[in-house]
Design a protein that fits this description.
By secondary structure, this protein is an alpha/beta fold. It has helices at 29-43, 62-77, 91-99; strands at residues 8-15, 18-27, 49-60, 81-85, 107-109. Strand 2 (18-27), helix 1 and strand 3 (49-60) form a beta-alpha-beta unit. Helix 1 packs parallel to helix 2 (62-77).
């Protein structure tokens, strides 16, 4: 867990073959620098399977977005999988991904439950409320996660 008096937190856990990193607070240049080093370690392994839980992120800037893009590129280069969970619950992340045109670039999970990876093998108290489980748990053949609120209004008036 990264928590050194800064305005962000990070908690990591492994569920089966998936690494889940829960982010919280402000993902700015300071957070992106510290978190980026750890995400580089995770994505350096062969076939990384990574879920970034963004639901508790209250602020994200261009450095945070750059960190997400770098993590995505590194994951793809190792034939891995990166999913962002909780984007719909984090207005600042959702807004910035929309404004930058990156929303459709990431594999997003809409999670109706309190845990973004419910239903993963080995997850205690795994919840299977959604038919077929969370989109995060689907196999690659089933395609990417659903976009967060595809019918929701965009922030185009701000752009």
């Amino acid at each position: 867990m990264v928590e050194q008096g800064w305005s962000f937190t990070s908690r990591e856990r492994v569920v089966g073959a998936t690494t889940v990193v829960e982010l919280g607070g402000e993902v700015d240049i300071l957070a992106a620098t510290a978190l980026g080093l750890r995400l580089d370690e995770i994505t350096g392994a062969g076939h990384p399977d990574l879920v970034l839980d963004m639901r508790d992120v209250t602020f994200i800037d261009c450095c945070g977005i750059s960190m997400l893009c770098r993590t995505r590129r590194r994951t793809q280069a190792k034939a891995g999988r990166l999913r962002l969970a909780g984007v719909a619950e984090s207005p600042s992340v959702l807004r910035l991904l929309r404004l930058t045109g990156l929303l459709s670039t990431f594999d997003l999970c809409l999670d109706p439950g309190p845990d973004p990876v419910f239903g993963l093998t080995g997850e205690p108290g795994g919840d299977s409320r959604a038919e077929g489980g969370c989109p995060c748990t689907r196999s690659r053949a089933e395609g990417p996660g659903r976009p967060a609120n595809p019918g929701a209004p965009t922030d185009s008036a701000v752009a």
